[in-house]
Amino acid sequence: MSTHGYESGRLNLPFVGISTFGKYPYVENWDAIDADVAVIGAPFDFGTQWRAGARFGPRAIREASTLFSFGHGGAYDHEDDVTYLPSDEVRIVDIGDADIVHTDTLKSHANIELAVRTALAAGALPVVLGGDHSVNIPCIEAFDDQGPIHLVQVDAHLDFVDERHGVTRGHGNPMRRAAEKAYVSGLTQIGIRNVSSTAREGYEDARKMGSDIISVRQFRKIGVASVLERIPEGKRYYLTVDIDGFDPSIAPGTGTPSHGGFLYYEVLELIDGLAKRGEIVGIDLVEVAPDYDPTGTTAILAAQLLMNTIGRVLHCRQNSG
């Protein structure tokens, strides 16, 4: 019987095996995390104000991420002449999902916060797969003992609502909750456009509380280099990406799509510059809702962006000295 193709182990194509993020190892025991990056699922969507479904985002992103697991020992980018995520140098694990308790926002958020704290305590970069944007609230709360962070948001919506009918932890509230934290030194909110879930006073409050708000049209007018110059240099950045920051022509699978959004390379070039400008210490990507994503392109976009972001963050860390 021929053994051709098995001389050096299994070929392990993307459609084979278990769909962890990037087909990286799954670590069930959170006391045994030994990695540079810990991927965490936060399948919570009780904070949505219109279409739910982002609870299935982590599964969709994980499955889509297997597309980028061809086993070449890394991801070579010929434009940069860099092999990102070299398999012999980076340690990435998937630690599964925070437990979600249906209808209980506070308990679910507490479980997400614990997952992020656990990753940070292990010295790993937490990369959180949402879930709706309210999951950013517990993510940021997990950084209360980590020193100052500057929050960089890519989003169609400002998400700066203080309180509405008693709701303070929905997906329209996270940037307001972050701005209230003493250890959040400022916010840069990029991609904000068109009609918004935040009223005018929310924008006024955001600016008073240290936020720099940039629309897609303003971004394109001044260019990515000028946008980066407006972000404080040499800081510790927390990056939060709402998939509706992208145009729904390439990211239809989300609960609140907003036309006039970004294209892929606009955001990747922003993140590439951010990784070189300071240190990205936390990441979440939220609001992927696969039920509205008939071709799977939104989940693939999310996975591709995250793989490239992680690659650039680790590459900059390895070459910072």
How would you sum up this structure, described in words?
With 321 residues, the protein is of the alpha/beta class. The chain has one domain: Ureohydrolase domain (Arginase, Chain A). The protein is 30% helix and 17% strand. Strand 6, helix 4 and strand 7 form a beta-alpha-beta unit. The protein starts with 36 loop residues before the first strand and ends with a helix.
User: In DSSP terms, counting alpha (H) and pi (I) runs of 4 or more, how many helices?
Assistant: 9
Distance between the termini: 52 Å
CATH class: Alpha Beta
- Rg over alpha carbons: 19 Å
Question: Which shape, going by the Cα principal axes?
Answer: globular
The number of distinct β-strands equals 10
Helix vs. strand class: alpha/beta
Biggest sheet, open or closed, and with what strands and sense? 8 strands, parallel
In CATH, the homologous superfamily goes by the name: Ureohydrolase domain
Order of helices and strands: EHEEEHEHEHEHEHHEHEH
- Briefly note the CATH topology name: Arginase, Chain A
Residue share in helix: 25-40%
Which CATH architecture would you pick? 3-Layer(aba) Sandwich
